[in-house]
Amino acid sequence: MAAAALLLLFAVSFAFSSENLVSAERSFCIDYKNNCFLKDGKPFQYISGSIHYSRVPRYYWKDRLVKMYMAGLNAVQVYVPWNFHEPVHGVYNFTGDRDLEYFLSLANQTGLLVILRPGPYICAEWEMGGLPAWLLQKPNIVLRSADTDYLEAVNNWLAILLPKIKPWLYINGGNIITVQVENEYGSYFACDYNYMRHLRTMFRFFLGEDVILFTTDGNTDKEMTCGTLDGLYATVDFGTDTNISDAFNRQRRYEPRGPLVNSEFYTGWLDHWGDRHAVVDAQKVSRVLGEMLAMGANVNMYMFEGGTNFGYWNGADHDTRFRSVITSYDYDAPLTEAGDPTEKLLAMRDVIKLFREVPSGPMPPATPKFAYGFVTLKKVGNINGVLDTISPLGPVTSKYPLMFEEMKQYYGFMLYRTTLPQDLSEPTPLISPLNGVHDRAYVSVNGVYQGLLERDAVLVMNVTGQQGDILDILVENMGRVNFGSKINDYKGLMSNLILGKDALTDWKIYPLDIDGAISSGWPHSNQKSVSSKQAALSAGPAVYMGTLQPNGLAWDTFLKLKEWTKGQVWINGVNLGRYWPARGPQQTLYVPGPLLSTSLPNNITLLELEAAPAHLRVIFMDWPQLNITAGKS
């Protein structure tokens, strides 16, 4: 008994001394006297780059992190998108491409510290700024505020997330040196200090008193005033066109002492559909980076690799009108969308060499690419012809239209069906009187495509038909607003549609689970011949399929959809994202090699929403096209 007690006492004292040893050896704090960070008691300047694990296939995480390390970075900055991990209320996913802790472990193994930005709001040009769409089931919820419904959801999320983060804090033996609270809150209309105080309390409760918590805001007095809070270290963000001294002087007004920090130094910029591809000059980026580092500032480059908005994860903006972010998040970053080093990266590494020792050895090369060539697709059927497969639960009946959120269909597509109330021998206007189509509606009568309505752009179109004809309106969610006051971005038909003088009623509303059907093997596993009548209907929403035969390679490639109009692509059940070459600037979709099979046929599925070309061909190329703008946004 005495021996057991002695052993227990030894174990406790050893654990206590080990814990003290870790905390004594590992520390990360702010030296307010000397205006710098201290890492393990020594002055420290971080040179960091942003990478989003949610935009890069897990298979490539290590490759990208090694390239960042070899470029001379000593840290990476990482967002945690709440909706990526809790897409359905109360159902959490931290596996596979969502395995945050595995990503942190890889960064640690690579020798990179982490600046973590867990939100709960992140912006990031990501769907709804990372907030889950199911929050909108509370119709009057005030997001990013002390609204009780919102705070309850935030509390539940942080109680899941932050305990996972705590062991990864640098002071606990991990690699997370600082943690951001919220994101650019000063740009939001609410300016709710009680909300920020609540977040500060939650972060301290779960992460402890010793970790550095910080805020990031744009370089204006209004943003810094509403976004900063006592106890959260205030940092700024700005790009190459900003006067550096003015920006850091503004930070100094809110943080008179401590390190200078640019949390988002813009190496490039995002694209919307219809924009010209954004490009920021490499020499200009390198010069401004050097000037900041020479001042002793800590810099995070946003982005260092952008990656891809796979699936439906792109965000949108709504300043004067709704503008959806493209699938590629290449961002003209130092590493391309496919993770390839650029001249911009090499120029920035040359600057970094002047301030810290850069790892010796060559920069890892670009991943191999392959041009697999042409594949001819065949038509599976129009949407109404495959409705039983892609809407297995069938319709919900409602006198008036219901929104996506009311149907718990948060992403993708829904079909609204009713009948024409009268004969329309002459073209009759179908009107969205309150700009209530969010975001695009593809209109067919008896399966024949008649045109579209588009948010902020096309509010009237003409319809013909006979009384009792089936009117189908396929509505596409183009991504929720991720920035500004309009992030409460509901989707679907927001109000009645008017046909002539009649408000349309008595709807059958079909939630579409196209992703579920395709991931289960459809349509390749259940090939039915398409009627000649169906095949002749080349316009309007329809599904197409084809097969890329294996050739022993599984290399990265780029899918070009020349003369296809707009839609969505899946390869081997994985949703690559939206294509819209008719509008541009993006003309190709990035296909990561690990998605492809070297020995089995690779299944290609397209949902074309407007019009397929007669040739029905797609081509796999070994280089991307991201800079051809074909139309207005």
UniProtKB/TrEMBL annotation:
Domain Beta-galactosidase 1-like first all-beta residue range list: 401-513
GO-annotated biological processes: carbohydrate metabolic process
SUPFAM superfamilies for this protein: (Trans)glycosidases, Galactose-binding domain-like
Domain Glycoside hydrolase 35 catalytic: 37-353
Positions of the catalytic residues: E184 (proton donor), E264 (nucleophile)
UniProt keyword annotation of Signal present: yes
Keyword Hydrolase: yes
Residues covered by the Beta-galactosidase galactose-binding domain: 541-598
Keywords, alphabetical: Glycoprotein, Glycosidase, Hydrolase, Signal
Pfam families: BetaGal_ABD_1 (PF21317), BetaGal_gal-bd (PF21467), Glyco_hydro_35 (PF01301)
GO molecular function: beta-galactosidase activity
Coiled coil ranges: none
Gene3D superfamilies registered for this protein in UniProt: Galactose-binding domain-like, Glycosidases
Signal peptide as annotated in the record: 1-17
Protein family: Belongs to the glycosyl hydrolase 35 family.
Cited PANTHER family: BETA-GALACTOSIDASE RELATED (PTHR23421)
Protein name according to UniProt: Beta-galactosidase-like
Gene that this sequence comes from: GLB1L
